Amino acid sequence: MAINQLIIAAFSGFLAVAIGAFGAHGLKGHINEALMTVYQTGVQYHFYHTLALLMAVLIGAHFPEVKTYKTAGWFFVAGIALFSGSLYALALTGVKVLGAVTPLGGLCFLAAWLLLAVAAYKSI
């Protein structure tokens, strides 16, 4: 099992809850509605892809010979950091240039999902 990715998935889930709660309770009235929407999008994608990472780790544990699950997992990790991280930073600072990083995270997510499909195919 990709124990490092399992630990990262668990910590990522913890962070998604903590960051989401901070946004819901700590940011109200401190950032405008548009930036709050950006922040919430970051949290939403953070959660979705943490669950996808967990899925890749757990399914990959049943097919240890298929290394593509692990590769997909690392792309999910990169996507969370780049996509959600850039949206959090943008929402908290208002520095719009940070939004230029977001599509790189999106590309990582797309690559991860394709790699997950390839891994599933190899597992047949």
From TrEMBL:
GO CC annotations, alphabetized: plasma membrane
Keywords: Membrane, Transmembrane, Transmembrane helix
InterPro entries: DUF423
Coiled coil spans: none
Bilayer topology annotation: Multi-pass membrane protein
Transmembrane segments: 47-64, 71-91, 97-121
Broad class of the protein's primary localization: membrane
Localization in the cell: Membrane
Record family assignment: Belongs to the UPF0382 family.
Protein name per UniProt: Uncharacterized membrane protein YgdD (TMEM256/DUF423 family)
UniProt organism field: Sinobacterium caligoides
High-level lineage: Bacteria, Pseudomonadati, Pseudomonadota, Gammaproteobacteria, Cellvibrionales
